[in-house]
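Need a sequence for this fold. Nothing fancy.
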């Protein structure tokens, strides 16, 4: 596995993987700032939603093969806790495994105990943020307005999830970054091959990509090679933007 990965990853990704391996072998979580650094370097977070638990490892393998190493398992997916536990155990030294659709502090605590390295939410719940900060786990709350973004920042959040980004468009993030340049932003919701590059150019440090990457129909039909192709295509676009 390590030889295969070494042939495919860029130097920045090698650095991230070394951090992951060191933390994994010590049996501890990476610190929140290390996870943030990894998310920014990766630039792509694959969203796994509504798929069966027995496909989680095949999805992870497909994403790894395509070069995507940050994964969010949403908590409205049946068996999400078990999926996060399994992925963190088997891929924690190669991937960043997070929990999504976390609406409150109680669910955040469950996700943290399950092994999630970062916690995403479609909304801003300050108690969820506090729970994550208490255990040095990276919170990524969802915000829509400048007021929500600043409130998240003032409560210790370093990165926010702009949702639904696809409805707002890349220009919205560009405008938001003007007065709030200190806040890292992840674009989530409606991200596809047509607008992904525009969101990154507009100032998003990363994008959460769901059905356009981990498509439920492809998973049900066992077409994991297609997920690999899609992952590689998004990675290729990201590299072109950063050239």
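Here you go.
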């Amino acid at each position: 596995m390590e030889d295969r990965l070494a042939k495919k990853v860029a130097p920045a990704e090698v650095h991230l993987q070394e951090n992951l391996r060191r933390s994994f072998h010590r049996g501890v979580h990476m610190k929140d700032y290390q996870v943030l650094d990894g998310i920014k370097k990766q630039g792509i977070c694959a969203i796994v939603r509504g798929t069966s638990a027995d496909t989680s490892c095949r999805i992870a393998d497909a994403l790894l093969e395509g070069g995507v190493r940050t994964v969010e398992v949403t908590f409205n997916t049946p068996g999400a806790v078990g999926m996060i536990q399994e992925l963190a155990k088997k891929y924690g030294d190669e991937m960043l495994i997070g929990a999504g659709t976390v609406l409150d502090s109680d669910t955040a605590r469950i996700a943290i105990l399950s092994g999630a390295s970062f916690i995403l939410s479609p909304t801003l719940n300050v108690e969820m943020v506090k729970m994550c900060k208490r255990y040095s786990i990276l919170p990524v709350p969802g915000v829509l307005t400048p007021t929500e973004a600043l409130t998240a920042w003032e409560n210790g959040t370093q990165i926010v999830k702009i949702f639904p980004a696809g409805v707002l468009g890349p220009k919205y993030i560009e405008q938001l970054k003007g007065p709030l340049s200190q806040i890292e932003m992840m674009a989530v919701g409606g991200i596809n091959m047509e607008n992904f590059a525009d969101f990154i150019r507009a100032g998003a440090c990363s994008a959460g990509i769901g059905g356009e990457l981990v498509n439920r129909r492809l998973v049900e039909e066992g077409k994991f090679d297609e997920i690999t192709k899609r992952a590689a295509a998004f990675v290729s676009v990201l590299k072109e933007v950063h050239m």
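For context: The chain has one domain: 2-241.
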